[in-house]
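Recall from the previous chapter that SMILES is a line notation for molecules. Here it describes flavin-adenine dinucleotide.
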Amino acid sequence: MYGSRIMLACGRIAFPLCLPNARRNPRVLRCEAEPQHGSSNARDSGPKKVVIVGSGWAGLGAAHHLCNQGFDVTVIEGDKGFGYPDTTAIRGYYRAFQNIFSLVDELGIKPFTNWTKSAQYSEGGLEIEFPIFQDLPQLPAPLGTLYYSQFFRLPLLDRLTLLPLMAAVIDFDNTDTAWRKYDSITARDLFKQFGCSERLYQDVLGPLVHVGLFAPAEQCSAAATLGLLNYIILAHQKDFDMAWPRGAVKEKVFEPWMDSLRAKGCKFEEDRRLTDLIFNEETGCVSEVVCGRVTYKADAVIMAVAISTLQEIIKNSPTLCSREDFLKVLNLGSIDVLTVKLWLDQKVKIPAASNACSGFDNSFAWTFFDLNVIQDEHQSDSMTVLQADFYYANELLPLKDEQMVVKLKSYLSKYIKEFENAGVVDKEIGRYPKSMTHFFPGSYKNAMRASTAFPNLFMAGDWIVNRHGSWAQEKSYVTGLEAANRVVDHLEEGSFARILPVKEAEPHIQTLRDANKSLNDLRAQLSLSITQLLPSMD
Ligand SMILES: Cc1cc2nc3c(=O)[nH]c(=O)nc-3n(C[C@H](O)[C@H](O)[C@H](O)COP(=O)(O)OP(=O)(O)OC[C@H]3O[C@@H](n4cnc5c(N)ncnc54)[C@H](O)[C@@H]3O)c2cc1C
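With both inputs in hand, we obtain:
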């Protein structure tokens, strides 16, 4: 009864399942929605409204294309300030991130360093130095990656045990079938099954997976591992090269990007957390986005938030809880991160700007970055400024700042001796529980597609199932563009965004992949005909 009064007051029909939310907060009246323009039921003249929730790579990617198509776009950000998540840790930009590099060219900004060398350390010390691969003669994949990486400790025999893994990389063609096949096992099991030596696993592959997928290999999906290996490391020699933002991504990319979007009419609403959605009973479409006491009318909505925040939204939304695809998201997981920025009283020579590390404790891997090399503001500092990021940092989060600094300094000193004598002048510790996606075995079947049970509600983010084949920030950005394309399709206005496809595999890999596919098809047909024969044999 109470609900119907609200509906009448607003002069239109709201999806009844939303009402408990309104009951909790009687001031959530649709009538006090901020912009009072058209909805999917009764549209005023003027551009159609798209509300985008979240202002990371996915949300801004969607806003970018939809503003270019003349839609009335509002981006809602739950935090105080935009671009917040990208201040948490240092993000790398692989050469494979073609869509992001094309975007920064379009914006006319130069946010990234030149390509940098990187290194990998294990408990025993410097394990590998990775050169700038595009500067070296190109060899057929994956030979260049293996040949030019300088291994300091791992014997050749152990390195050679990596080669059989190529069979899995070839078999994994990023299709739904491939994801289902490999998602049921762990990266650890994958390496074991394909004959990688224990030492290769412990000192190289395990840590590489941990800093790539942010969790220990025994807790990562083999499908996600193969997707990452294929996209960044093994498909093309050049694609493993990395550049770094020359400061906070917020300042170097997001602020100029948002300025360009504002100039096209995009509205940004900060400190507005999405709390629920209101649906039109007749069409099944979202008609309004609820942020506490404020609502926004929408012809289409894109949700571009991280898993952990989406889970909170779902738990509090009776409407979303009524749909299987949203309920399954509650089975997904996220990972804790801890960052330590240190100012030291002397210059320590760090051989590579970015470093992947493991050892000392098997439960987490981490990275450290020479900020004097990477970030503009520290380039002329007389002291060393570095940042270390710890992934899967569950057991580190409760530690006191001082304990973390002692731990980090002792780790660094084992890798590079001069750290022993350096005193800490200043420190900044950041704790970010549940801040990144956990691609654990079995997670694929619970991940959402970009389209949902609601015709005008679309999803974007690095955890969405898509077939583009990219990863991390590039994937988020691409899923934002894909969600924008779905809006264009749904509202039947504008044209589709051009998304640069992932580069095709090199011809020899493609030939092997085609042969493998034919073989798999043949096997499937044979087993089908055998099963068809079986009843007649009874
Ligand atoms: C520590 C760390 C290191 C990483 N390193 C790399 C790397 O080296 N290279 C790489 O490519 N990727 C890296 N990543 C992954 C990369 O950062 C993510 O893939 C990418 O940023 C995800 O972008 P997104 O837009 O999907 O989500 P997000 O960036 O999480 O954006 C979601 C936005 O939604 C907002 N929001 C949340 N809840 C609400 C709500 N209720 N209402 C409104 N807004 C809300 C959030 O505040 C946020 O702004 C790293 C991630 C982390 C955490």
